[in-house]
Specification:
Helix content is about 5%, strand content about 55%. A hairpin with a 7-residue loop joins strand 16 and strand 17. It has an 18-stranded antiparallel barrel. Strands 1-2 form a two-stranded antiparallel ribbon. Strands 8-9 form a two-stranded antiparallel ribbon. The chain has a single domain, classed as Porin (Beta Barrel), CATH 2.40.160. By secondary structure, it is mainly beta. The protein is built from three helices and 23 strands.
Length: about 450
């Protein structure tokens, strides 16, 4: 009986939201995806319920199983021998979306990571990127929200996964970042929309503080106990197909007020066999309560595509006074030159806190990359990328080389392998890292 009702509901149109960061136009790849800044809202069509009980009768379950391997070899202060650490883990997420009653539904998702002890080394040689602060496995309720949706208005209240310029999921290890608070999207027209947000806590890989022995699976304050958190608003206008201009304002209590603007788009040449992705960004960051988080960042990027091949570059410059630095916010940040490891905000912060004398704390970064999508030769979903970047200021330089292979097989399977070579003159730290992840989505 339930199956028959389920089938009858398939044509019902309601909205449950999946928030994801979509930064490319029908191209795959990781570093390539980071360079084209659109933050889109993707709407799925759930079922309508007739009562509270039937909300759960019609609930859709979903999940992701992830097998991960990481190997890192560090050499610090030019010591000849490298310290190598690695880890295997099995993880992912399980959750469900209820049907919608009076435009209201529930969304639940638990994230987990389980160490594979039979394959892992001793605690001393274990890479802890897949673990909690005690090198243990973890499971936690990462997403848990009440959702309201209609044709023009969408809102989530609770623990949510979002992707915005200064608060984003940044899924780079076993689990994404998620946030506690509220998020809304308002569609004024098909081309004009607003997002509003309020967050005060977060969890995920980026939320950890090694000095405080914090675990990625624990929700913690964005700033500190005295801060009410982060409020933000945006206005986005799509001025052409796959092209838009957006304005964002975020007030992070006890940290900074950030105004961010961006123009991104795609220009098609020669009947779409050649096209150009382009972007311009500007961020002005004003410190609050003497946090020293202060400065401006500008950036530009371009990627040219011809059939399966693409090549491009990006540039960022940051400008801060002595002792001040710019920030990624909470997650990977919006900057076009961000690499697998290095970001311009990272060298801005390390220079500001190094104690070295300087009249300012300006920095520059560039990135060059090329890749190929193998769809034209029969390997649909297979993408290879090679990337080189440099980030530098008066105090030092970071060089990074990344090689990324991604393979998306249908709607279920996804695999990626990333090799990173990192060299920093700030602390004479050099490392090589290999990361492999295989996902099965259901």
């Amino acid at each position: 009986m339930i199956d028959m009702i389920y089938l009858a509901q398939l044509d019902e149109i309601a909205a449950i939201l999946v928030q994801r960061e979509s930064r490319h136009l029908e191209q795959g790849g990781l570093i390539h995806s980071k360079t084209a800044g659109r933050f889109e809202i993707v709407k799925e069509l759930p079922k309508e319920a007739e009562s509270f009980d039937s909300m759960f009768d019609y609930a859709d379950t979903f999940g992701k199983l992830r097998l991960g391997y990481i190997n890192s070899a560090n050499r610090i202060s030019n010591i000849a021998d490298k310290e190598t650490k690695d880890a295997f883990a099995f993880g992912g997420e399980f959750g469900f979306d209820t049907a919608s009653l009076y435009n209201t539904s529930f969304h639940i998702s638990a994230y987990f990571s389980q160490n594979i002890h039979s394959l892992n080394p001793s605690i001393e040689d274990l890479n802890r990127d897949f673990s909690d602060a005690n090198a243990d496995s973890y499971i936690y309720l990462a997403e848990a929200s009440v959702d309201y949706s209609n044709e023009y208005f969408h809102a989530r209240f609770g623990r949510v996964k979002v992707d915005t310029p200064y608060a984003n999921s940044d899924d780079i290890r076993m689990s994404s970042n998620t946030f506690e608070g509220a998020w809304t999207n308002i569609d004024y027209t098909s081309t004009l929309k607003t997002q509003l947000l309020y967050f005060d806590r977060w969890a995920g890989y980026d939320s950890q503080d090694e000095d405080a022995l914090e675990s990625q699976n624990e929700f913690k304050n964005l700033v500190d106990d005295d801060s009410f958190g982060m409020i933000g608003a945006s206005l986005t206008y799509e001025y052409a197909v796959s092209s838009e201009v957006s304005l964002w304002y975020n007030h992070i209590d006890g940290m900074a007020a950030i105004a961010y603007s961006e123009i991104v788009g795609a220009y098609f040449i020669n009947d779409e066999s050649i096209h150009l992705d382009y972007g311009l960004q500007f961020s002005t960051i004003n410190e609050l309560e003497d946090s020293n988080v202060d400065g401006n960042v500008l950036g530009a990027m371009a990627i040219i595509h011809y059939k399966g091949a693409f090549v491009g570059g990006a540039y960022n410059a940051s400008y801060s006074d002595e002792g001040k630095y710019v920030t990624n916010g909470f997650g990977g940040g919006p900057y076009y030159t961000s690499l697998d490891e290095a970001t311009i905000s990272a060298i801005s912060e390390v220079s500001a806190t190094s104690g070295k004398s300087a009249t300012n704390n300006d920095a520059e970064a560039f990135r060059l990359g090329a890749g190929y999508e193998f769809e034209s030769i029969g390997a649909d979903g297979l993408v290879l990328e090679l990337v080189y970047g440099e980030l530098y200021n008066d105090h030092g330089k970071i060089k990074e080389k990344d090689a990324i292979l991604t393979y998306e097989v249908g709607e279920r399977w996804y695999a990626e392998a990333i090799y990173t070579n990192y060299e920093s003159s700030f602390d004479n730290n050099t490392f090589d890292r290999a990361l492999v992840r295989i996902d099965y989505n259901f």
